Amino acid sequence: MDKLETAFAQSGLPGAVALVADRDGVRFVKAYGHADATTERAMEVDTVFQIASMTKAIVSAGAMQLVEAGRVDLDAPVDDLLPQLANPQVLTGFSDSGAPQLRPASRPITLRHLLTHTAGLGYFFIRPEVLRYFAATGMPAPGSLASIQMPLLFDPGENWEYSVATDWVGLAIEAVTGQRLGAYLQASLFDPLHMSATAFRDALPDDAARVHARTPDGGFAIQPMFLGGGEFDMGGGGLTSTAQDYARFTRMILRGGELDGQRVLSEASVAAMARNQVAPLRAGYMGSAMPDLAQPYDTFPDQHTGWGLGFLINPDKGPNGRAPGSLAWAGIFNSYYWIDPASGLTGVMMSQLAPFGDAGALGFFGALERAAYQIDA
């Protein structure tokens, strides 16, 4: 792992935590650089990060627990659980005056649609149509329920579009259980997996990593970005965690739903999560309507990537070593992970830098993966 020191220096990241694990435990974990580059506060291996969309896989696992228990049906309309999604409307365009034009969707939205990002929902920072819709109807406050209420971009099941769908999955969990999402996840996943640093928080701890942006002079400025503390526990991106905590979750997936004698999902549920659910659609590409927040991104532009019930799936071997059928995704502040069941390896790289898709962060993550598979670059 010595090459990682060089790779981190070349990345230009303010700080990061890199981790590699297998089914039996953590093989390597190390902190690099600073949690706050402006004060030179050192990064630690137990530093708390905003994991943003890495939240989605955890919430998806929580939903699959309820599917497994027979408390919710993957393919039933979610109308009763989420009346806000009943009778969905598809955005077809805008009038000359800028008013949104809508038509009824051809079918209802199901939990499977939400888990696979095929419901037709979007993100305002990815799709300009969504941004234009909110501009026409009133820009909602960040963290409000209104921020995830929007017309569909296409009929459910007809396409793949990264979206606020997992926020709705979290609200469906609340509707089924009668619990706040954070309380449910605490009891069903965090406690049994001993993920003691993972939680929805109303504010960042003082010693948490800060979100940075690069400055023209080659330095960093702190960005006051916080994805928590809103009207609801944001299932699509609101969790804070550490690299070591998140690796306990990825190792559970790697082990088919069990960790340290605690089974939280059946092997069949994990297999369903890891199986491509969207073929023949291609998943994984994200455009950008706000490049200062997230640049266009495609993990494997040369592969026909799929999506399971919570994960991106690569059908071919990755350029840095992961086997076909590996699972992956990321968080908007340039944190990334992969889970490789075939090779029995998982890796987590956490950093806090905007915008998403930073070349330096991706380079360091690639170096971590190559080191895990002992591939010389």
Task: Give the topology.
Elements: H1 3-11, E1 15-22, E2 25-36, E3 41-42, E4 49-50, H2 55-68, E5 89-94, E6 100-104, H3 111-116, H4 128-137, H5 165-177, H6 181-190, E7 199-200, E8 212-214, E9 220-222, E10 239-241, H7 243-254, E11 258-259, E12 262-263, H8 267-273, E13 306-307, E14 312-314, E15 326-331, E16 335-340, E17 345-350, E18 353-354, H9 359-372
Parallel strand pairs: 8-18
Antiparallel strand pairs: 1-2, 1-17, 2-3, 4-10, 5-6, 7-10, 8-9, 11-12, 13-14, 14-15, 15-16, 16-17
Task: Explain what the structure shows.
This protein is α+β, with helices and mostly antiparallel strands and 377 residues long. The protein is built from 9 helices and 18 strands. The chain has helices at residues 3-11, 55-68, 111-116, 128-137, 165-177, 181-190, 243-254, 267-273, 359-372, and strands spanning 15-22, 25-36, 41-42, 49-50, 89-94, 100-104, 199-200, 212-214, 220-222, 239-241, 258-259, 262-263, 306-307, 312-314, 326-331, 335-340, 345-350, 353-354. The radius of gyration is 20 Å and the shape is globular. The two termini are 12 Å apart. The mean pLDDT is 97.
